[in-house]
Write a structure and sequence with these properties.
single chain, mainly alpha, 3 domains, two-stranded antiparallel ribbon, two-stranded antiparallel sheet, disordered C terminus
């Protein structure tokens, strides 16, 4: 049985129940005991809606009372109730037409046949949404919406809550629609609330993600945005070419553009330098490059040492003089 047929049966049974409201509760429940199964068989045979096959719920209630030997006709329902019943019938008929027409687009005779296959997935999603709604209500709401239903900031408790909610939702789904109107109404109302919560939570999470990304993009301002090139000098004041810059984590530091602007023509050209500076000819300081040699101090002239004569030198020869006469 698909979802549309089940809803149609529930609406028809509720209409018959209202038409038999003048009977005692025990008698009314006895007459309605096997009605859902009978209506399911009628729908399975095909040939139109329940109203087309069996008439209005009020007419069927009168026939049901007569077949049970209950004398007295049911009071005529108020005009407002009759209009509501007619409106429900029209909505059901329109829904059935849409079901028949959209089914072939999905590869099935009816769209409801395809939706039946998605029932287990919906049960799991409904349990997840119920757990998230519970956490949202009973948490302090100071943190952003996450993927787990956190109440006491405990991951184990969040997993247990999520598992319990999903298992409970699967159990409710396997039981089917409640027979009594009040539980059925509560189930539908709770499902509608969870659907609204899912839509609101989706847009809130999307807005938080977009706001966080926008904040990071607009609030960061680099103090080196004006730097176009980097010039590295050694302790001798000489320009180092091909320098590579890294941070404390070993990541390369990129500053400026990989190109140079001609100071005369203003034309930009791509640099072929493998490191910094990109434009060595635009260095702010004119210093000697590592390839150049520096002039050394002028050497002072040295004098040759004066040789010293040895102390034991031979006496120089003397010139003989004539002897004196006696």
């Amino acid at each position: 049985m698909n979802l549309t047929a089940q809803d149609e049966i529930s609406l028809y049974v509720e209409g018959v129940r209202q038409a038999l409201a003048h009977l005692p509760a025990a008698t009314r429940e006895e007459l309605l005991e096997d009605l859902p199964e009978h209506l399911a068989e009628v729908l399975a045979e095909g040939g139109g809606s329940l109203t087309e096959r069996l008439g209005t719920p009020q007419a069927y209630a009168a026939e049901l009372s007569a077949s049970a030997g209950i004398t007295g006709s049911a009071p005529r329902p108020p005009a407002r109730a009759a209009r509501l019943a007619e409106l429900r019938g029209r909505l059901g008929e329109a829904t059935r037409r849409i079901d028949d027409r959209t089914g072939p687009l999905l590869g099935y005779a009816k769209a409801s046949d395809f939706l039946v296959l998605l029932r287990p997935a919906w049960w799991v999603l409904r349990g997840y949404l119920a757990a998230m709604a519970f956490a949202y209500i009973f948490d302090d709401n100071s943190a952003r919406i996450g993927l787990l239903p956190r109440v006491v900031d405990n991951e184990l408790f969040a997993l247990l809550l999520l598992a319990g909610a999903i298992l409970g939702s699967i159990w409710l789904g396997r039981r089917g629609q409640p027979a009594k109107p009040v539980p059925r109404l509560l189930l539908k109302a709770g499902t509608a609330v969870l659907a609204i919560y899912a839509v609101v939570g989706f847009f809130e999470a999307d807005g938080q993600a977009r706001q966080s990304t926008s904040y990071m993009d607009t609030s960061y301002v680099s103090e080196f945005g004006h730097v176009q090139d980097v010039f590295v000098y050694d302790n001798q004041g000489r320009l180092i070419k091909g320098a590579q810059l890294y941070d404390q984590n070993g990541q390369p530091i990129r500053l400026g553009d990989n190109g140079c602007t001609d100071q005369v023509t203003g034309e930009w050209r791509e640099s072929r330098q493998l490191g910094y500076p990109r434009c060595p000819d635009q260095a702010p300081f004119l210093v000697a490059t590592p390839g150049e040699t520096e002039a050394g101090p002028t050497p002072e002239p040295t004098t040759a040492p004066t040789p010293v004569e040895p102390s034991g030198a031979a006496p120089s020869p003397s010139v003989p003089t004539p002897a004196a006469s006696k």
